[in-house]
Amino acid sequence: MRMIFIRHGDPDYVKDSLTEKGWREAKLLAERVRKWEIEDIYCSPLGRAKATASCSLEKLGREATVYDWLQEFPAKVFREDLGRMKVPWDLKPSYWTKEEAYYDKDLWTEADLMKTAPVREAYQTICEGIDGLLLKYGYERKDAYYVRTHPEEDDQDKTIVFFCHLGVMLAIIGHLIGAAAPVLWHGFFVAPTSVTVLASEELNPGEAYFRCQVLGDTRHLYEGGEPISSSGFFTKPFQG
After folding, report:
1. Which residues touch 149 (CB under 8 Å, ≥6 apart)?
2. Among 19, 20, 50, 177, which residue is least crowded by beta carbons within 10 Å?
């Protein structure tokens, strides 16, 4: 079982669409995606994700299933330092690293800042969404791993693709591998139209754990001569 997560292209947040650069990125991505053997495609309901997906869907002659839980992480917290509501990441390191809860996969939603908004409920919705979808493909969550509901079936080499967003993607990955979302949010950057791949491993037949094979790959941009966007990153992205 293989899951491929694609972040939307360089965003125009005001229009909830893509910039001209974002459209170029999405078209280069589509040339890559069209070569994949894909079982199903899923997409966020937000415009920038749908726009990114549209280029690949046109090449494939396919449609995507839209799930609300794939939208960008919806709960915003109240930032006293800014005096307004904001996404629950991009926090100053001198602030969030002092609170042990942020490093705990089960307790990070109970940190004081996270309780200024329904972060816990939003995260639960996302976790229930991905677990419910995986159950459709025969993977049932048990504790912190998954069991195949029909282990006698060997044909599990299926690939599903998600067009979504940085925050929700890393929250899902955190749930799958047992890592606190704030650590992933602050420790990793995935560029617009980057490709992230998780695949199931069964060291014990019938017991699956999802392992990251590729994180934030932008090969299609290199090959197309398109610079990597720094959207969501606070320094210059590596272009080599």
Report:
1. 135, 138, 139, 140
2. 20
Strand 17-18 and strand 84-86: the pairing is: unpaired
Q: Is there a contact between 216 and 237 (Cβ–Cβ < 8 Å)? A: no
How high is the pLDDT of residue 238? 82
Helix axes 119-136, 166-177, angle to 10 degrees: 70
What confidence tier does 32 reach under pLDDT thresholds 50, 70, 90?
A: very high
Number of helices and strands in the chain (H, E): 7, 12
DSSP H or E segment with residue 39: none
Which tokens is 68 given? Answer: 């609300």
Distance, in Å, from the CA atom of 78 to the CA atom of 199, rounded to the nearest integer, reads 36
Nearest to 33, CA basis, from 166, 193, 156, 222: 193
CA–CA separation, 176 and 212 (whole Å)? 10
What count of Cα atoms within 13 Å lies in the side-chain half-sphere of residue 50? 12
Rg (CA), the chain: 18
CA distance 172 to 168: 6
Cα separation of the two ends of the chain: 31
pTM for the structure as a whole: 0.96
What does the pLDDT look like over 196-218, one tens digit per residue?
999 999 999 999 999 999 999 99
- Least Cα distance to 193 among 15, 18, 16 occurs for 18
Strand intervals (E) in 105-194: 139-142, 145-148, 159-164
Q: Which two tokens stand for residue 130?
A: 């991905």
